[in-house]
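Notebook, bench 3.
Goal today: get a predicted structure for Class I SAM-dependent RNA methyltransferase from Leptospira yanagawae so we can plan the truncation constructs. The sequence was checked against the plasmid map this morning, with no discrepancies at the termini. Length recorded as 401 residues. Pasting the sequence as submitted so the record is complete.
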Amino acid sequence: MEKLRIKLEKWVNGGYCLAHHDGHAVFVEGGIPGETVDITLSKQGKKEWFGIVATVIEPSPLRIPSDCPVYLECGGCSYRHISYEEELKLKTSLLEFMFPNAKGKIEVSFGPSEGYRNNVQWQVEGNQIGFFAKNSHNIIPSSSNHCKNVDKRLLLDETNEIWKQNQIRRSKWNQKQTPHPIQTRIHKKNQNHSLIQKKEKPISLRLSQDKVVFYDLEETNFHFLNTKLKVPSKGFFQINQFLLDTWIQTIKRLLPIEANVLELFCGCGTIGIALRDQIKTLHGIESHDKSIQYAKQNAKTNGVNSFVYEVMDLYLKPLPKYLNKYSTWIVNPPRAGLSKGLIESVAHLQPKTILYSSCNPNTLRRDTTSMEELGYQIDSLHLFDFFPRTNHYEALVRLQK
């Protein structure tokens, strides 16, 4: 791959530093603004190039030695070459750039920068376990036993009891597969024969109270803020075990007293049930039937009998008119953000307060811009660093009309 010497200009979203060369914008991983570096180009488009730092020629005073032997090769982290303090400043400045009216007003919440993940999915090939290398299906050797982001109880190698349990599961799973698996690798041996190797099932682990479970097969139990929740197998739950309470408490602080709440993308009911003492009525909507079943069960377990939960595809069409009685919305969508239909629903149903939590600041900015055009104003913006050492974070805004 082609190499290039370049001077880095500024931080941009995605964990990149921006530079320019020969009329091209160059997005570089592993650098710091002001540095002169040699990079290896990984992708060259007509307008944009992408590269990874190979050698630092003129280092920044902010550079520190990485504490991970596979940093950049893995691609899971973006900022292990700067201090965590600098990372928080960086993430705050990037969010301020997207929301300039909030400059100097963003509340930042963070916890320990290591061991924060309560779940992980390890890839498997033969006796190799770990993360895929960036932009490939090649497993990084031993990454499963030294990743600093993952709780130590979820780390894994061939001697681990969970690995042994998984070998039994994997054997049973492989026996059930059809002769034509979803992903195959074909190695031609001659014109008449080929060897087809099946993709092996990942090892999906999650902390469930005091034990580790295979979350693709088993439900998970969480206890927090005087709330007991069960999450279905494969069900979504926030991954940062240290910031969940802070996030929920902040939403509570922003929520009107005796609120009538429409909770969109409610999952198994996490937010509304945790804030049940401050909510008068709640209607939760989620597209996954199993999650709604668990939301109903979780509500009863926590002494709530008045909340209503409904299965509905929130990307398919606008919300029905009968939901106009809910003056407060809590929305926590996936990275895709809100659909045009949901923005139309905001215009038609006219909620007074919208609390929007997002793991994608780009779609958050897009959606809040649309709502500002409808007369809403952002009066609160919070950054929760759910994903330390990576380029990701959670942002929470309150919009009011």
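The first strand starts at residue 3 and ends at 7. The chain is about 20% helix and 30% strand.
Flagging this for group meeting.
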